[in-house]
Amino acid sequence: MSGVFSPTRAKIKERTLRTDKWWLEPAITFGVLFSFVIYATFRAFEGANYYKDHLISPFYSPCLSQACVPEATLFGWTPVSAEIFNFALSPALIILIFPLGFRMTCYYYRKAYYRSFWLSPPACAVAEPHTKYTGETRAPLIFQNAHRWFFYAGLVFNVFLTYDAIISFKNVDGQWGHMSLGSLVLLVSSTLLWMYSLSCHTCRHTVGGRLKHFSKHPVRYKLWTLVSALNHKHQQFAWFSLAAVAFADIYVRQVATGAWTNFYFF
Amino acid sequence: MARKLNLRIWRGDATDGGLKDVQVDVNEGEVVLDVIHRVQATQMGDLAVRWNCKAGKCGSCSMEINGKPRLACMTQVASFDEDETITVTPLRAFPVIKDLVTDVSFNYKKAMEIPAYEHPKELAPGEARMEQVDVERSQEFRKCIECFLCQNTCHVIRDHEENKKSFAGPRFFIRIAELDMHPLDKLKNRKRTAQEEHGLGMCNITKCCTEVCPEHIKITDNAIIPMKERVVDIKYDPARMFAGLLKREKRN
């Protein structure tokens, strides 16, 4: 018997005496994240319907595989083979590790999935079901410390996705100065991704949090206060950007399959 | 005007115990500690409860109210439904002594393990000067009233007794962060010892400590995560690893 049932602690047989709906938040988080994982897995392996008339899905950008639709590539640069060991590789599989890694190691998502998937703990003051716990001190969870690596990679991806959003301000004939619903969707998606990255705890630390003397670094202190303000909303940016990326992919897919027509405002 | 309140209080000691139902008068504006005192005065003369200031500043009356770690003196009875039974138990992460009183000496042992502030040798006492902007961050952590609700709710020790020897807990991570962010503290290796001796790596950022803090200290966002990032600086940062390699290359 361990934890709240240890011999020296108050003898209470319930795992928790909470009377509120403590299970609701982890249940919703589980449902949403699980749905996203299922959808993202399907899309990552689909290997099609990711480009149409200057709209490229964020799941497939940058498109670096020789299997990519030529218009979807990054200036025609395709350094990765279309096959590995005779297995046709979807272009998304080459790159998704970076945004996936960034979110998996994110301090907010860690809270979300440790609670909802691993029940460690499911909610505050609700006893977890595990008999042993070593936290992030050994493999595999010690790799959460790679968050900074993924943060740097995430910034590079944001540049690509912003470029994609800019490119989408072309019409079907490739002329600039046009805007469609797809442009708006990609613009919102890339903007929210920037907000998510810039509000990140690693970003906050990197711009100034690591300092001992703010007074000696006024510019970095200013940056730190700005990122700190964004950081208060990191959880919201995490969810909104996830939803926006998923919707951007759904939109591009629907347009690419012909199910939806991309509406042009001008 | 007084009304009747259904209260369930845990009574017992380390050997045995259980929840006892009582009905007690409650007046408008009263807090849970008031009704516990009334029970003690009228029905259970030997009920043990630790309290002191009744103003949310001493941290003595920490307990669990309807399963949530809270200060009894800051929990309004009116925050519950009128027909709701309020259940009061001792903190469930620490050994119980009697009724609502637990042995929190674990925390004092951990406090002694944290290396103290080390003053710069070149500065005599009274000569130290700091800008307000440099101490603001640490001042948030000085609001701690040592109620140990964060320690109590932290699942690392609440659910795993065996981790107590290797884990200092959120209250002491804010102490370490406060010192590591201190502009004048000269102690080396505070980050490394936080990780290797005080169990910073065991925290999995589930933020329960922040949720229960009665002083609203952002324990996770402002202390634990910054400390984890400082540990990454010295152990896992790609840019620093690369810079280190270049330096070594130059030296060779």
Biggest sheet details of chain B: 5 strands, mixed
| Domain module tally of chain B | 2
Number of helices of chain B: 10
Question: Into which percent range does the helicity of residues of chain B fall?
Answer: 25-40%
Q: Estimate the mean pLDDT confidence of chain A.
A: 95
**Quaternary structure of the protein:** heterodimer
Instruction: Return Rg of chain B in Å.
Output: 22 Å
How many structural units, i.e. domains of chain A? Answer: 1
User: Count of DSSP helices of chain A?
Assistant: 9
Structural class of the helix and strand makeup of chain A?
mainly alpha
What is the 3D shape of chain A? globular
Query: How far apart are the termini of chain A?
Result: 68 Å
**pLDDT < 50 stretches of chain A:** none
SSE succession of chain B: EEHEEEEEHHHHHHHHH
* CATH class assignment of the largest domain in chain B: Mainly Alpha
CATH topology label of the largest domain in chain B: Fumarate Reductase Iron-sulfur Protein, Chain B, domain 2
Question: Helix and strand string of chain A, N-terminal first?
Answer: HEEEEHHHHHHHH
Q: What does this entry show, briefly?
A:
The complex is a heterodimer of chains A (266) and B (252). With 266 residues, chain A is mostly helical.
Protein model, in words:
The complex is a heterodimer of chains A (266) and B (252). Chain A is mostly helical. Chain A has one domain (19-257). In chain A, 50% of the residues lie in helices and 3% in strands. Chain A has helices at residues 24-46, 91-95, 97-104, 107-116, 147-167, 181-198, 201-209, 218-231, 234-257; strands at residues 51-52, 55-56, 83-84, 87-88. Chain A has a two-stranded antiparallel sheet. A two-stranded antiparallel ribbon of chain A has the order 3-4. In chain A, helix 1 (24-46) packs across helix 4 and helix 3 packs across helix 5. The longest helix of chain A is centred in the C-terminal third of the chain and has 24 residues, at 234-257. Chain A is globular, with a radius of gyration of 22 Å. The relative contact order of chain A is 0.13. The model of chain A has no long low-confidence stretch (mean pLDDT 95). With 252 residues, chain B is of the alpha+beta class. Chain B folds into 2 domains: 3-102, Beta-grasp domain (Ubiquitin-like (UB roll)), CATH 3.10.20.30; 105-238, Fumarate Reductase Iron-sulfur Protein, Chain B, domain 2 (Orthogonal Bundle). Chain B has helices spanning 32-42, 105-113, 132-141, 149-153, 155-158, 170-180, 190-196, 208-212, 219-235, 238-251, and strands at 3-12, 17-26, 62-65, 68-71, 86-89, 96-98, 101-102. The model of chain B has no long low-confidence stretch (mean pLDDT 95). In chain B, strand 6 (96-98) and strand 7 (101-102) form a beta hairpin. Chain B has a 5-stranded mixed β-sheet with strand order 2-1-5-3-4. The chains are: A mainly alpha (266), B alpha+beta (252). The interface between A and B is large, with 54 and 62 residues.
